[in-house]
């Protein structure tokens, strides 16, 4: 009886110290997932192009609406806004901290 208890205790100790090396199984992507990823990439490219066009259009609007001596002030405020918005987007969506 005592040998059985010792065997059970040794078995429990071995199981508790076994390193976890199980690999996650990779699922093959379906056609629907490929389609979604492709559409996401396409929409992302369209949004990036529209953002560039908007960026240059606002610069031209500043040139049209404001006198030449005030243009550098408004352009610098606009560029500052663009930089702050870019930092916000990077921080919010790409530099997320993992929650424990």
TrEMBL record:
Protein name: DUF8060 domain-containing protein
Residue ranges constituting the DUF8060 domain according to the UniProt record: 22-85
Pfam families reported in the protein's UniProt record: DUF8060
Region entry Disordered, spans: 1-31
Basic and acidic residues bias (residue ranges): 8-17
Taxonomic lineage: Archaea, Methanobacteriati, Methanobacteriota, Stenosarchaea group, Methanomicrobia
Family annotation (InterPro entries): DUF8060 (IPR058373)
Keywords of the record: Membrane, Transmembrane, Transmembrane helix
Keyword Transmembrane helix in annotation: yes
Transmembrane residue ranges: 37-56, 76-95
């Amino acid at each position: 009886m005592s040998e059985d208890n010792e065997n059970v205790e040794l078995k429990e100790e071995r199981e508790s110290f076994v390193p976890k090396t199980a690999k996650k199984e990779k699922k093959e992507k379906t056609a629907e997932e490929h389609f979604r990823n492709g559409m996401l990439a396409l929409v992302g490219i369209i949004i990036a192009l529209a953002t560039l066009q908007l960026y240059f259009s606002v610069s031209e609007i500043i040139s049209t609406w404001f006198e030449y001596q005030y243009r550098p002030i408004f352009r610098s405020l606009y560029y500052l806004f663009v930089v702050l918005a870019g930092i916000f987007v990077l921080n919010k969506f790409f530099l997320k901290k993992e929650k424990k």
